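Problem 12. The chain below contains 750 residues. Write out its predicted structure in token notation.
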Amino acid sequence: MRRICKVLMVIISIILGSSAPLNMAIPPLLALAAPDTSSSSTMSSSAISKVTDTNVMAVSADVTSTTDTSDTSSSDSTSATSTTTGNDTTETADTAVESGTVGTVAWTIDDAGVLTLSGGSFADLTGKRSPWYDYASLITNIKITDEITVTTASNYGFLFASLANVAIVTGLNKLSMSGVTSTESMFYRDSKLTSVDFGQTDFSTVTTMESMFEGCSVLTKVNTTNWDVSHVKSFKRTFYMCGKLTMLDVSNWDVTQVTNLDSTFFGCSSLPELDVSRWNTVNVTTLSDTFYNCSSVKIINVSGWDTARVTDMSATFMDCSLVTELNVSGWDTAKVTSMFRMFYDCKNIIQLDVSGWITSQVTSLGSIFQNCSKVVTLDVGTWDTSKVMDMSFLFGGCSSLTTLNLEKWDTGSVTTLYSTFYNCSGLTSLLVDTWDTSKVTNCFWTFGGCSSLTTLNLRSWDLQSATASYGNFFNGSKKLQHLTLGPDFTFHNDKTMYLEEPSKKLPYNGTWQRNNNDPTYTSAELMTNYDGATMAGTYNWVKTSGTVLVKYVDGDGVEIADEETSSGTSGDAYQTTAKTIDGYTLHATPTNATGTYDASTITVTYVYDGNLFFNSSPTMLDFGSHTISGTTETYAPTLDKTLAVQNNGQISSTWNLTAELDSSGFVGANTGKMLLATLYYQTDDGKMTLSPGVAVQVYSQTTTDHKSVDISEHWSSNLGLLLEVPNGAAMADTYQGTISWRLNNTVANN
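Solution.
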């Protein structure tokens, strides 16, 4: 009886390397992302007059000099007597050298310089100078010995004015202020006077205190606590230039009748505190120079002030250089016409809320915020500027401002933009593109020193009326890279507007260009050639062009995919990505995979590790159907696909192939019994037995190229994979087993 033994071998899996099966998906490649302004501003004539006005007195009291003994007396006149006898001079201590009367008040000036006033009442003091003005050089002290009261002469204006040597006044408590209506210039320019104490608080009939202590330059203290000033209408220049004043209590003053606070505390530069928080300013019409140069005061609380009637706020807080906070957000500015230098040199203010101010009547905003160097934001975008003519130094020196939105400002009345944005060194953005500048005659230094400004749109600007004063318009705006000019803009065909030259540092080449195909210009060429009719548009700094070359290579530097190029403007960003290349895995992303174009060619090289892989593998090895023989038989398999390997790794690297028979060996499909046969791999060098469950190296090779290696090409009946079935080992059945092929890579020999 003849039996047929069919031996069938099915390959279920072939595993690459030492762990991953051949048919595992390759993980996806990693995706790759990619001039000094302080001296250049011109003060208005009104401001100058405030500084130079000295109240020079043209009217003097009558003075009669006589050498006879006749009586001269009058309640309405001033008399003086001096006696000189030959060449004889008799001098005793405290001897009167001058004497006279003012009304019923007798006075003497002794040789010690003491002006002594007796009791009585003064005559009408109508002159604009002191009754003792002619003796000013003699008087060092004033002493009032008896009570002086008011009868018909209520005007004490200039009473002790311009007595420049007077240091001490005693007995002021005897100078009754009851009934007095004017203390104007009472101590005007008493430049050696150090303190004043009236010893009384009743000033209830006084209506003006203008210039009362003006020019008392060494005055340190005035006892003004609880003064009744309820009928005073003017405090103009009351403490003007009292530069040494360190104490002043006006906190409880009733100022409801006051209309004029012009220069009230002007130049009180040593005053550390000033409490005016409770002042009722309902009738005030002028706040010009009110706190000018109060440079030692840190807090000025005016948040509750009623400013509804105020028309002049020029220099109100000028030179209040230590003030850090100022709440004026609730001020009514509807009637104000001038805000000239209002906050000039308030260099420590950080926040200033003026967003709700009504400015429809304002004609001057010159220097309003000049040198407010710590203010970070100014919300003035909704201001009505339709009547404003002066915008000189408006934001000059506001070096902490970063942006200003002034696009809605009506500038149709403006005549001067002199240094409007001078030294706004923090500005990066400025919206002024809609401004009407057709009436502007002065645009000197308008954007000078705007050293951070990169973009400026002047599409609607017309500077044709500024025929003389337009120099240094752009001077110092070194980062200005994008400039929009309109049809009415003019450089006046010369270079004095000083448009800064574009950078020549990469990526820029030092020129301007409107459109890509337009001519390029240096700043000098643009200023001298600009014609609004044909050249209007946005000019930009020209950038050089650059190229990026992307290469894809293996570990040996051999190109494994076509290179790619891209071009762009120097300074612009570029981004490259790796390719998915069969048989290769990206080694690492190059450091310059992303960057910016420059004038050179940038080479980006992606390096890949070559893969070791089966580019063909059999799924079935069929050892055929055979009749059971009485002898030992050897069988060679038939493959449904070749067994081929490709190594894309580095040249000279070595790899090997192992084969492993499953630990179950060959098992009969019907009997479930193992075939006691030997599977082995035969080479010219010998025989390698594949015992079940043991991996055996059957092939190795050193890579010389990246071509496919067909391992099964030379398999035959005596080479390659063979199955030896001993006599009596098989019974009729179909046997199946699994062989795992594995590839292993080693380091290249360098």
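Discussion. Helices lie at 45-52, 523-529, 532-535. Students who got a different answer should revisit the alignment rule from Section 12.3.
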